[in-house]
Amino acid sequence: QGMVLRMGLADYFKKKRGEFAVESKELGEEIKLTAKNAMIKAVFIYPGDDVSAILNKLKREDTNACIVVTKEKRLVGEISDTDIIRLFLSEVKYEPITKLLNWGYKRGLAYKKPAELANKCKTTVKLDTPIQKVIEVMAKERYTYIPVLDAERRVIGVITPSSLIDLLKDY
């Protein structure tokens, strides 16, 4: 049952009717690709951290988003570099007034906490979510990442377009 005849990858995928499954070259066994296969380490930030922690992690980890979690790793939301830029731009818009009042936009940002800035994640996946579903969601919703949750709904990683490409290029 687990054995798959050797055939072209395109024919194999057609036969599987779009379900992402691949043949292990060494064993000739079928492997079903899931979110677990494409998952990478998430960059966590906590609700009580300050904005400098967000900025430092975005830069140090070379990522475009931080996942806001509780100490138990329960998902609160996400903060992206785009969110920070939008906040800067909204405060810069009123810069003449901030100069007059001696209240700068950098100071305003300094008082924000990740819990206040976090966007709710609309979609998450489980470890065993088929990779085809992950790809469909990412493409349809234009997400730059999707959090991966374990059975207790704790964040254990994320899937990004790059991590999908890294996975699929080998198959």
Structure description:
The chain has helices spanning 9-15, 35-38, 51-60, 81-92, 95-101, 105-110, 114-117, 131-141, 161-168, and strands at 21-23, 30-32, 44-45, 65-69, 75-80, 125-126, 146-149, 155-159. The chain is of the alpha/beta class and 171 residues long. The strands form three sheets. It has a three-stranded mixed β-sheet with strand order 3-4-5. Strands 6-7-8 form a three-stranded mixed β-sheet. A two-stranded antiparallel sheet has the order 1-2. The two termini are 21 Å apart. Mean pLDDT is 78; it is low at 1-10 and 12-19.
Descriptors for this entry?
18% strand, 3-stranded mixed sheet, 171 residues, single chain
Write the layout of secondary structure elements.
Blueprint: H1 9-15, E1 21-23, E2 30-32, H2 35-38, E3 44-45, H3 51-60, E4 65-69, E5 75-80, H4 81-92, H5 95-101, H6 105-110, H7 114-117, E6 125-126, H8 131-141, E7 146-149, E8 155-159, H9 161-168
